[in-house]
Amino acid sequence: MRRSSLFVVIVAIACAPALAHAQTGDVPSSAIMAAPQVQPEAVAALEKMSAYLRSLKQFGLHADTTIDLVMEDGQKLEFPGTLDYKVRSPNGLYIGMKSDRKERELYYDGKTLTVYGPRNKLYAQTPAPPTIAGLLALAEDKYGIELPLADLFLWGTARAPVSSLRSAAYVGPARIDGSVTDQYAFRQDGVDWQIWIEAGDKPLPRRMVITTTDDAAQPQYASTLRWNTNAAIRDGDFAFTPPKDAHRIELVAAQEVSP
Amino acid sequence: MRHAAAKHRASKRHAPPHANPWRNTIAIGAGIGLLAGAVALLAVTSDAHAGPRARGGARTSVNHAGAGGHAVAPSRSANTNVNRNTQVNRSTNVSRNTSIDVHNDIDIDVDNGWHHGWYDDHPVATAAAVTTAVAVTAAVGSIVNSVPPSCVTTVVNGIAYQQCGSTWYQPQYAGTAVQYIVVNPPN
Known about the structure:
Largest sheet of chain B: 5 strands, antiparallel
CATH architecture of chain A: Clam
Number of strands of chain B: 6
CATH class of chain A: Mainly Beta
Distance between the termini of chain B: 35 Å
Number of domains of chain B: 1
Radius of gyration of chain A: 25 Å
Radius of gyration of chain B: 16 Å
Largest interface: A-B, 73 and 70 residues
Distance between the termini of chain A: 59 Å
Number of domains of chain A: 1
Shape of chain B: elongated
Oligomer: heterodimer
Strand order of the largest sheet of chain B: 2-6-5-4-3
Order of helices and strands of chain A: HHHEEEEEEHHEEEEEEEH
Shape of chain A: globular
Number of helices of chain A: 6
């Protein structure tokens, strides 16, 4: 008898929340009230910028960047660096990355991807797809190389659908490097991001801040971009010629690396 | 790749797919020292268990180029904690770590673990079974993210090695980070 009483009590306790919920009978209203707002004007600005980026046949780009690393105790540390891009659609790409402690260059000429360390004098090469889009996919999927600011090549393509925007808002005008821009704020799964788009007939992204939201510490990657849409681009910019004292090594696929 | 991703997540010591393996970069301590000065460096690195270690970092792109949704980090980090001894030996050499102009990959490119993908050179050996100094015990096929400073670059038949006593390492790029795999001595 005692046992069955106890059983009833336990069942009652276990069911209480469900019963209570059933009695109220409605969906929590917060889910509806918190529905993100996607402002059409913000989406339109993003699409306009994307279309302009896709229309560029070639460009040079310098970016000053900072990245947050999250320590195991949750503290964030910031590290500065620079990026230099030279791009010629559809199959020429150079990236130079510098920090105080590491330098890397990446060359792509439509046939070969080269990773080179100007300081360590080590380079690796692998056959590459015929387009920058294919290269980016290969680099990410096979080699685990997520190119910084890959968005520049993905906006306006199926890889960056506006349907993935959970929130889009116009923040207001702002000045970046002396240029008038418009600041926008977007939210997607895993990232909040802001972009400053140049006002006028060259809607280029001039600054970008990406906040990684699926890490509780919310580390940020910030970049200020200086464009040269009239840059002189030569074939030689994308072809790697190893210095005499450089050594070739292997580029290993990500899945082969793990011991 | 998906397999690798799953494997990545399965391991407790691993970072999430796009957070990458800097959690193991205990020579962030060396980086801190670089920023804060030699005294701080000594303070941080004199204790192998002290000093911040990165567990993740910011994404550098909103969207993904690959089919997998998230980039798979080059799986360079197994369990770096096993090899702290090496860290101690190397990082106590203050002059190396505080000199930015040293044209030596072991110093510049490998010694300082930080940054996502492009910058995440690891300072500490990650060999699966290494429990003491790399140069002494590394087994063929083991992979480490750095080699002791006493190693010398040796080119045999056009291939660059790092020779550390009787142990030979062949450098390779995992993503944009250099790692070293232990190989049999070349003929």
